[in-house]
Design goal:
- It catalyses: 2 R'C(R)SH + O2 = R'C(R)S-S(R)CR' + H2O2.
- Its cofactor is FAD.
- With 139 residues, this protein is mainly α.
- It has one domain: ERV/ALR sulfhydryl oxidase domain (Four Helix Bundle (Hemerythrin (Met), subunit A)), CATH 1.20.120.310.
- The N terminus is likely disordered.
- The longest helix is centred in the last third of the chain and has 19 residues.
């Protein structure tokens, strides 16, 4: 029986992971977790209503406030909690306000890590997280 048929892995099994990621089947590292979380948060903000109801605002705030308590990276969780306290999101402004707020918080992390900053205009955030580029390559 082959290694693949038996479910075991060998050094001949080809990995689809990027070189900067753990091998396939391993728990996510802090970078993978961060990318996935930012993708989820930015996409959620992009689809947040323009005029959210009080319940939608409360639930979004609950999601954001849960991260500093539940996020698996304690350093990241603590930092986000500090940033939320210093700059609370204005959810009455709907998706535009939330998208900008998240982009600014993400840029604070990017700056701390020496990564490039993202343009936080609604045109840029919508293109990246909701509509895709105007050239249609994501359609």
């Amino acid at each position: 029986m082959s290694a693949l048929a038996s479910g075991s892995s060998t050094s001949t099994t080809k990995s689809t992971a990027r070189p900067d990621e753990p091998p396939e089947g391993c728990p996510p590292d802090v970078e993978q977790l961060g990318r996935a979380t930012w993708t989820f948060l930015h996409t959620t903000a992009a689809y947040f209503p323009e005029n959210p109801t009080p319940i939608q605002r409360t639930r979004m705030l609950g999601l954001l406030m849960a991260l500093p308590v539940l996020y698996p990276c304690s350093y990241c969780a603590q930092h986000l909690g500090e940033r939320i306290n210093a700059h609370p999101p204005d959810l009455r402004g709907g998706r535009v306000s939330l998208s900008r707020w998240l982009c600014e918080r993400h840029n604070e992390v990017n700056e701390r890590l020496g990564k490039p900053l993202f343009n936080c205009s609604i045109k840029s955030t919508d293109e990246r997280w909701k509509d895709g580029p105007s050239d249609g390559r994501c359609d």
